[in-house]
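--- STAGE predict ---
source: upstream dedup step, 1 unique chain passed
mode: sequence only
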Amino acid sequence: MKILRFIAMFAVLLGLVSEAGAQQVKQDDKLHIIIIGAHPDDPDEVGGTAYKWAKAGHDVLMVSLTNGDAGHQSYSSEELAKIRREEARRAGEVIGVRYITLDNHDGQLMPTYENRLQVIKLIREQKADIVIFPRPYDYHPDHRYCGTLVLDAAYMVTVPKILPEVPFLEKNPVFLYTYDHFVQPIPFVADVCVDIDDVIEKKIDMYHEHTSQMYEWLPFNRGQLDQVPATDKERREWLGKTWGSRSNAEPFRAKLIEQYGKEKGSKIKSCEVFQDSGYGTPLTKENIKYYFPFY
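--- STAGE serialize ---
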């Protein structure tokens, strides 16, 4: 890819191609990433890495497979679906990416053929090089079935006769799991860790947009509503302290040192981690820097 960029720049200097032509060569290097979660705010789990991709000029789409219409103690389902869709859209704006929510009901997501076609369509339309999603092991059925739906779609995105009205992918994407702490039936294994110390505040800013969740539903559901500060500024500070720890690098120290070297790897405070699902194109030592250019 670097050779292509050099050739393009050299050609511009010689007057062989226009600036627009050289830019097109650069566009050929653009990665297309889709981050799929069960609920609005789930894709934000990898908001730091998403922001790094977006800053580098790559195309990132965040998707919630449900509209989140069950996750609140007060709003009606109709009101909540509208609120959460707007919160997700604003969270995407924080890092300059598209963030959409589908109309499936919260708590009712099932691994049906109809829903599988929805996922196939999303991945194909995004022309995805990378698909990021949860493992199918989790306390929440929507999270589990989100993982199952993506795994069920993984091969089918390349099959022309499945959903023929949407062009199939000629190359299968890399399918990567997001981190979870569950150990049954098998624990998560970090294949790549991304240092997000430089963008952790952006990630918290994304979560800050999900008011109905971060400051209302989740504290209520956990019996912590009395801990939520009153003002917007105090809430943001509180969120940074409580949710910033979810990106704690310490459990992945050995992997970070392996990747970044001892001097840097031992100092990283926040990271996001991914596991190769074994589906689609494998993540290898040879291609990891292509898919993670900031690696």
